[in-house]
Amino acid sequence: MAGPAKSGIVLDSRVLAVSIGALAISAAILGVFMWMVPNAAAREEKAACRGLRGDLPLNAALCNGPNCAMPTPAPDFVALDHQGKKVKLSDFRGKVVLLNFWASWCGVCKTEKPSIKAMADNLSSDDFVVITLASDHSWTDILLALVDSLAPGQKPKGEVSFDQALAAYQKALPDGIPFKVFIDPPSNDGNIGAITQSWGITAVPESALIDRQGNLRAYFVNKRDWTTNVAETCIRSVIDE
């Protein structure tokens, strides 16, 4: 009498070999893909920032010598906010920072401010902050310049006190602005702030893109249109790392 039939799964060795081979190929493809993604992101960042001319050679003050390549640590500094409180660049470590050097007396800086505001409105988050450092002797001049650039036609005429400038700012920009403003007073009768000078800057505007670790990732001499797709890609590529 025949015994009971055996049940179970019988694996063909050839099928098993093919399956293992397919899994190995899939794992290899996944590994290559995972390797390519960060490299592709890095290439995208470099291409976008290069397209924005953010890969210009750094001046010696930023790298303690010639031919300094990015990334390199951004020099720390202590500036003052509108209440006279000291604020350090390193206070923003952990965020991506776009640092913009400007001044109230700089006409080009004023024409750049609307695109900075639009970009900050679009990208501001817990991961990103825009800081502007004004080479000015007084907050009156800074407030009036912000009104003049961001609310054309609403700047008061004639001699204006600080209180009048503040009232004009609050009326023209009731919701405030999406970027931070700190003051960098020039020494004596100069027109470039002490911090700005320490970065080797002799004319404004200039801007720096700084990563979460405090390293310079791109540097921009003169103004840019920060509302362009290439500008957004350059900044987002650092934010999304």
Written description of the protein model:
It is a single chain. By secondary structure, this protein is α/β, with parallel strands linked by helices. It has one domain: Glutaredoxin. The chain has six helices and eight strands. Strands 1-8-7-4-5-6 form a six-stranded mixed β-sheet, with helices on one face. The protein has a two-stranded antiparallel ribbon with strand order 2-3. The protein is globular, with a radius of gyration of 27 Å. 32% of the residues are buried.
Characteristics:
241 residues; alpha/beta; 6-stranded mixed sheet; two-stranded antiparallel ribbon; 6 helices; globular
Write a concise synopsis of the structure shown:
This protein has 241 residues and is of the alpha/beta class.
Topology, please?
Layout: H1 13-51, E1 72-73, E2 78-80, E3 86-88, E4 96-102, H2 107-123, E5 128-134, H3 139-150, H4 162-172, E6 180-183, H5 194-198, E7 206-210, E8 215-221, H6 229-239
Parallel strand pairs: 4-5, 5-6
Antiparallel strand pairs: 1-8, 2-3, 4-7, 7-8
Helix pairs in contact: 1-6, 2-3, 3-4
Please give the CATH class: Alpha Beta
Main sheet? 6 strands, mixed
Q: Any guess at the CATH architecture?
A: 3-Layer(aba) Sandwich
Structural class comes to alpha/beta
Q: How far apart are the termini? A: 72 Å
User: Which topology does CATH recognise?
Assistant: Glutaredoxin
- Order of helices and strands, N to C? HEEEEHEHHEHEEH
Full CATH superfamily name = Glutaredoxin
Spans where pLDDT lies below 50 across 5 or more residues: 31-38
Q: Supply the number of structural domains.
A: 1
Q: Considering DSSP H and I runs of 4 or more, what fraction of the residues is helical?
A: 25-40%
Strand order of the largest sheet: 1-8-7-4-5-6
- What is the radius of gyration? 27 Å
Strand coverage percent: 15-25%
- Can you give the mean pLDDT? 86
